[in-house]
Amino acid sequence: MSSTPDFATIKAGMADVYERQAEAWDIGRDTTLRERDWLSRWLEGLPTPSALLDLGCGSGRPLAAYLTNLGHGLTGVDASAAMIDRAQSNVPRGAFQVADMRQFDLGHTFDAILSWDAFFHLSPGEQRAALPVILNHLKPGGHLLLTVGDDEGEVTGIVAGEPVYHGSLSPAEYLNILQAEGFADITYTPNDPSVLGRYVLLARGKGTA
């Protein structure tokens, strides 16, 4: 009989996992840029250059590197200092800093905000609290792109052989939160095979609905 994972312990140790495994994660990261179509949809209608925020940027590649190569200004934040060190080296045209997406204030707003394979490391309660903080950093008319889960709950994943925590709200709750912010166009795409079955939430045009 399988036992329920100790989610609290796994979550508490996750920051140390990324510090220990930054090199392995960076080397093993898929850089084929299968996310390209989603990035194009996220950026559609925005000027070049735009001010972009990558939350949970990891080592900066391939996403931050791709976005700066398109000519955009990019700020990346991550809770792992080891990841930020790698991002600064990998993407010299980006601006990177250690920050916790649950509580941060960068002092300015962005045309678009991305959190690919990072926002879902927060618990459901943390996500509810963090979304207003994140959206406060998004300009009117701005766009948001997140990977999330299939329903409210907690599961575990693996990074370089070590367990990490994943959490999610329900699709309906995400949609309610984003509709309340007045996004003009919101799509939730479950189990997208083009990005290996990820659940993708895209909201465009904040406050323009």
Could you walk me through the main structural features you see in this protein, from its secondary elements to its overall organization?
- One of its GO terms (molecular function) is methyltransferase activity.
- One of its GO terms (biological process) is methylation.
- It is a single chain.
- With 209 residues, the chain is an alpha/beta fold.
- It has a single domain (7-204), classed as Vaccinia Virus protein VP39 (Rossmann fold).
- It has eight helices and nine strands.
- It has helices at 7-12, 14-20, 22-28, 36-43, 63-69, 81-90, 124-135, 171-180; strands at 51-55, 73-78, 95-98, 110-115, 138-148, 153-159, 162-168, 185-192, 198-204.
- The strands form two sheets. It has a seven-stranded mixed sheet with strand order 3-2-1-4-5-9-8, with helices on both faces.
- The radius of gyration is 16 Å and the shape is globular.
Give structural attributes.
Rossmann fold, 7-stranded mixed β-sheet, 8 helices, globular, alpha/beta, about 210 residues
Strand order in space, largest sheet? 3-2-1-4-5-9-8
Total domain modules: 1
CATH superfamily placement: Vaccinia Virus protein VP39
| The CATH top-level class label | Alpha Beta
Rg measurement, Å: 16 Å
Number of strands: 9
End-to-end CA span:
50 Å
Shape: globular
Question: What is the helix/strand order?
Answer: HHHHEHEHEEHEEEHEE
CATH names the topology as Rossmann fold
- Structural class, by secondary structure, is alpha/beta
- Sheet bearing the most strands, described? 7 strands, mixed
Helix content: 25-40%
CATH architecture: 3-Layer(aba) Sandwich
Report the total helices: 8
Instruction: Give the uncertain stretches in residue-range form.
Output: none
Strand portion, in percent? 25-35%
Mean pLDDT across every amino acid position: 97
Pfam family, one: Methyltransf_25
Keywords: Methyltransferase, Transferase
GO molecular function: methyltransferase activity
GO biological process, one term: methylation
